[in-house]
Automatic annotation (TrEMBL):
The keyword Endoplasmic reticulum applies. InterPro entries: Surf1/Surf4, Surf4. GO terms for biological process: Golgi organization; protein transport. PANTHER family: SURFEIT LOCUS PROTEIN, SURFEIT LOCUS PROTEIN 4. Its main location: endoplasmic reticulum. It is found in: Endoplasmic reticulum membrane. Keywords: Endoplasmic reticulum, Membrane, Protein transport, Transmembrane, Transmembrane helix, Transport. The chain crosses the membrane at residues 64-86, 93-111, 190-219, 240-261. Belongs to the SURF4 family. It comes from Podarcis muralis (Wall lizard). This is Surfeit locus protein 4. The gene is LOC114587618. It is a multi-pass membrane protein.
Amino acid sequence: MAPSGDVMGAAEDLADQFLRVTKHYLPHLAHLCLISTFLEDGIRMWFQWNEQRDYINMSWGSGALLATLFVLINMCGQLAGCVLVLARKFVPYACFGLFGIVFMQTIAYSILWDLKFLMRNLALGGGLLLLLAESRSEGKSMFAGVPTMDDISPRQYMQLGGRLLLVLMFMTLLHFELGAFTIFQDIFGMALIILVAIGFKTKLAALTLVIWLFIINLIQNAFWSVPTYRPLHDFLKYDFFQTMSVIGGLLLVVALGPGGVSMDEHKKKW
């Protein structure tokens, strides 16, 4: 067991060193990654205004006026939310606005009935939940006055909820196929998912997931290699930026830690 412990200890030391070097830049990178899917979608709404309006009109029979209003709210809401998050101004309001956009799109584009896309949207919501938790200092919490148990604040429950929702992204990447590499990938990924969910060795597990997911994203969602006139280009582009947003959420886990509702925190009391 000693060699395994040495490897784990060395990996944790490497992760800690990475955090010390990047502590001033990591939150900004996390924010940029997290809002990337909203930024891309908002810009796409502008360039595909007519297509998006016609799709909503035909899908729901809403009429041109309501369809135009839907596209306008989506475009302005996403771009405004991105600007506020990057500027670190009114971040809670930006998060609630982006939550609303995710909910609207889940209904409007019938994502509710597609398990894969639903899980990815929930994972995106987990990233926003972590961003909301980060924006609330303990002294100026939006839940000020709410009683807590065992010194666990609502902010820490938000961190727990964010972690649990983020791992849904990885459930969509498991293949459950026979094959040595696929089986290894599924077991490896599942182990990291569980570690992040329960908050054990959280920063190391989350950082490893960031690297793994980034590599998978470059390989599986290489939209730049597909001609823009093909529908596959837009599908891959959507998946790519949504995955980048989940990576941003994981980077927030790395930067913030797991919070009070985690095994890492309880280990300190043992």
